[in-house]
Every structure is written in C-alpha cells, then in structure tokens.
C-alpha cells in the first residue's frame, strides 16, 4: 500500500472520530454497562452446551467483556482469549479461565501464555471502534479479526461473530471491502441485536 493510499484511507478519519466517541460513550454508560450487556448476551444469543467462546482483554476504552467471560466460564462453557502469533497472520486462541495469570503480548495486550491449551471458538466476541447496520465493524487497521473470522467461516458454517460495543458507537456506514468480515450480532448495554434486525431498523 502506498503512502498516498494510507493518507486517503477513509477509515483513518473515522477511527479518530470513533475513538473520541467511544471514550465519551464509556464515560456516560457507567460501570454497570458490562453487566447489562452480559444479560442481553445470555438472553438473546443461543449457545449450545460445549460451545467454545472467545473474548478479549479490554484495552483503552474498549467495552469490558470480562464480566461476560466470567459468567460464561461459570456456566461451564469453554473460554479463550486471542493471541497474536505474528503480523498479518490469523489469531490463535488459548484457553482462559477466571484468575488465570496472563502475560503481555506483542501488542501490549494481556493474553494467555504459549503453554495454554489451543482452542478453536465457534462464537467470537469481537472488540470494535464503530459498527453499522450492515454488521461491518471498524477496528484498529491490523485486520486480525477479519482475517481470522474469514478463515473460520470457510471451515465451518456455525461461526458467530458478535461485536460488543456501546450503543453510541453505531455510525451510518463503516467503509469496507470484500476482505472485511461482517458481524452476525451486535450486543450493547441496551440490547442484543441480530444484524438483520439492525438493517430493518435503519431502513424503517
């Protein structure tokens, strides 16, 4: 990618706006937002017994999914966190449980160490900067989740990608191309919405 294409990338301007908007949304939603989102997740998204669910360790103002992950673990679901293997490669996922010692990974994000068991999730709880009614999400630009979700979907039709965010992180449109993986659900502090429902709501 040339320097010019980087400068004119429409996602760059949106990221700056979305970072500021997410910070404000996190402050306004308050400390109970994570508990409310966990309730909406459990009451709306079907999770068969034995399902492996991946989450993420939140950084900056990302929506805190650790209360949800703790609840999933206590309900006997297998849980895991992503681990960056190397640049431009799909994520791997390592087993996680509450109280586990984590290490700082190559992107300065806490993750299980390399001795933790490798798991392959069928539900991926995905962080984001912004989302739209078509289920496209804005990330940080590394493409790790898009790459990983696309690969997993080629291997199984049962993969669910669930974006979790503050309601105010929704935007009219996220710039996207054929590489970008669409979400199946978006869960916020106000509800859990299948993408089809979001599309219908936006066109009403």
Describe the protein's architecture and organization.
- The chain has 204 residues and is of the alpha/beta class.
- The chain is 33% helix and 19% strand.
- It has a single domain (9-203), classed as NagB/RpiA/CoA transferase-like (Rossmann fold).
- It has six helices and eleven strands.
- Strands 3-2-1-6-9-10-11 form a seven-stranded mixed sheet, with helices on both faces. Strands 4-5 form a two-stranded antiparallel sheet. Strands 7-8 form a two-stranded antiparallel ribbon.
- Strand 2 (78-83) and strand 3 (92-96) form a beta hairpin.
- The termini are far apart.
- The relative contact order is 0.18.
What would you say about this model in short?
With 204 residues, the chain is α/β, with parallel strands linked by helices. The chain has one domain (9-203): NagB/RpiA/CoA transferase-like (Rossmann fold, 3-Layer(aba) Sandwich).
């Amino acid at each position: 990618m040339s320097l010019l294409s980087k400068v004119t990338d429409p996602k760059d301007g949106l990221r700056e706006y979305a970072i500021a908007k997410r910070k404000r949304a996190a402050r306004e939603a308050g400390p109970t937002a994570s508990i409310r989102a966990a309730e909406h997740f459990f009451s709306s998204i079907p999770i068969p017994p034995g399902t492996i669910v991946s989450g993420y360790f939140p950084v900056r103002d990302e929506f805190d999914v650790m209360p949800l992950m703790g609840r999933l673990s206590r309900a006997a679901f297998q849980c895991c966190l992503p681990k960056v293997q190397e640049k431009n490669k799909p994520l791997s996922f390592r087993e996680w449980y509450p109280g586990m010692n984590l290490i700082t990974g190559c992107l300065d994000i806490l993750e299980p160490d390399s001795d933790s068991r490798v798991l392959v999730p069928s539900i991926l709880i995905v962080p984001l900067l912004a989302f739209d009614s078509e289920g496209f999400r804005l990330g940080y630009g590394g493409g790790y989740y898009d790459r990983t979700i696309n690969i997993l979907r080629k291997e199984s039709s049962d993969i669910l990608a669930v974006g979790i965010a503050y309601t105010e992180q929704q935007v009219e449109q996220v710039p996207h191309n054929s590489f970008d993986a669409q979400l199946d659900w978006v869960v916020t502090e106000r509800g859990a919405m299948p993408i089809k429902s979001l599309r219908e709501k936006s066109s009403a």
